[in-house]
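Hey team,

Filing this mostly as a record. A colleague (T.K.) asked me to run one chain through the structure pipeline before their review meeting, and I want the input and output archived in the tracker in case anyone asks later how it was produced. No errors, nothing strange. Just documentation.

Input sequence:
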Amino acid sequence: MIKNYLKVAWRNLSRNKTFSVIKILGLSIGLMVCALIFLYTKDEISYDRFHDNKAQLYRIIQTFDIDKEPAQTLGTTNAILGETFVKEIPGVQQRVHINGAEITVKKENNDLLTEQSLFVDDNFFSVFTFPLIKGNGASALNDPHAVVLSRDLAIKYFGSTDVIGKTMQLKYGDKFDGFTVTAIAENSPQNSTLKFGLLLPFKYFENFNSNKDWFGGSVNTFLLLEPKANLKTIESSMQSLYDKNTRDDISKMKQQKGLSIKVKLSLQPLTAIHLSTLAGPDNGMTDGSKPVYSYILTSIAIFILIIACINFINLAVAQSLKRSKEIGIRKVIGGCRKQLIKQFLTESFLITLIAFAIGIFLAALVLPWFNQLANKQLSLAYLADNYLYAGLFLLLLVTAFISGFYPSLVMSAFQPVKVLYNRQKLAGKNYLTKTLFVLQFGLAIFFIIGTIALNTQMNFLLKADMGYDSKNLVRIILPVSKLSDKLPGIFRSELAGNSNILSVAAKNSGRSIAGVKVEGRTITIEKSRIDEQFLPTFKIPVVAGRNFSANYPSDSVRSVIVNESFVKVAGWSVQSAVGKTINYLRDNKPATIIGVIKDYHFISLKEKITPELFTMDPDFNYGQIWVKIKPDNIPQTLKLLQDTYKKAVPYFPYSYQFMDDINAKDYETEAKWKQIISIASGLFIFISCIGLFGLVILSIGQRTKEIGIRKVLGAAVSRIVMLICREFVILIAISFVVAAPAGYYAINKWLQGFAYRINIGWWMFALSGVLVITIALLVMSIQTIKAAMANPVKSLKTE
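Output structure:
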């Protein structure tokens, strides 16, 4: 019987090639997208699950509640917490500290390279599952001057993995030290938040960072718990020990600085770090992501598959009258409804199977491009397992069932007498088909609205006035050291007189959040150290007071410059702020405001401009040099900067970036989503339109005689085209009415993530509506004009 069903299904496919291609093409695209997103989601949830101890590994995280500021959760602590908890809390077996750092490697030819390294405890390989190619994991990190390399890094520096016992010159502090290679590890899996090329003993790191303070911290601390340990009991014991050891410090801060601080400790599963929205990968850990990405991509894939299934259902139902006599004859000769349902479901399965094979082929074809778009390294081989195969097979079955179930019910319900006398009509006004059509185009319009909004917001972000001149600004990274304070002066003297160099300025690296006391109230600030050339180099206007100056020696310790946002929060006017005194919360030292600058965007436009304070405090090291260059001969100027750097800083690798590139990097995620949503919109409209094309062909086929009569009676071609298109245009208009409010809500929700954003304009919705209607009319006109111009004699002969 199954053989007969398949034979009939294949004949039906061959007989209706146009509609078969439309169904298969739509489903194959939908299944391709689903397969890609399935791979993406499987990769996302597989992070760190290859470790043997994954169920027992937890990271200590801290949630800080300071005054009325929003609670902040950090995934790092100081090392003393892990050491104490292992000794004093039953159920805690081991602790592993992990700290990421940039290491300078000196090659044999004295070339310098920067590598990302991890400082880890000597029990690292017994707690985490990272296979070794050579060496003993139990003893590889016992010596403070041992180093473990990954396969790739061993080949990079030595050309082989047979390098046990060889030495490397590495620099973490101010001088190079010799390290002996004790083991070679396999490259870290792609789905690992711990990726390393170079492992160093944590005890070496502690020579430079011996911090026994309980408060704060920047080290990842992992605890290996006993298999049957009670998580709540251990967290409670951790909190008790922490409160006991920080009580005095917190009390002192409240008395001296008026700060009310509460810190809550908790344990975060290793497998939850990758997708954590509170405390993601930190300080050496990588590949943080957000669950919302998987949700959005999965939703897009499901919607694309849904509209492909809608195409199948609509075309199958519309074609059903053409197959009515076949159904009537089958029933007359004894076929029951259950057999007919099986036959139509078999046809659906066959079409879906063909589409599935094409979809998998297309997925493999576009996977390299998808990896680039999603910033992944996915492959079918890398993720292939029983779960993948079971998931894809389930996808095949569900798609076949959804596509074929309703049409099989409709067609199997035809009455033999009616169909054999051509009196069979579809029940009612076929509201389900129309509803599905509206849903299909509604989704397409929804995503087109999203694409227009995304593009408009991205253009706004990239073209917005940042409050400073970013053109031809080059940032050069400096080693964070007291020696770096002399480097801006050295650069100025070396580059003086070169016509391509306009100015040289210095600033600290990274971001520093601090607090100051102003007339009895606390203000959280962004604290930056700059020199007197920074504001002129960036062309940031001083709106009151003056800039730092070498003519005022006290500027280096007792003077600060603030931005307009600081003045506003303090409750002053811009002019009255000059001469006011502030006190640092950290040491209660006073400082005088000598100038106020115009607000500028020192971070991306996703965040609101906050109070910022500039100082020349020598205790705060420089980490960046900014050079304003002429655009006339950029390659030659960059070569000059590199030569000057290597001469001034021979022990640290050279690294530079243009300010415009740094700003663009802030919006990399948005740029990726712009591409993804644009592609999704294109797929939605394409699948919807090929379905529309099929429905128009069927509609014309059912109205052939009507069209012929109208032509004989003198109807114009344009009138006939409008007659055929009218119903579809009305349905698309209803789709727009449904999609527009949903689009507005989604855009408004997304824009809330930006402190500075576009206004949602009516033109976005009008443009999407006009675009969809225009494309739909073009698709419909291909067949409607042809039908309207056909010879009416031929039309009237059809029966």
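Quick notes for T.K.: The chain has four domains: 1-47+288-427, 55-272, 441-461+667-799, 473-665. Residues 1-47+288-427 form one domain.
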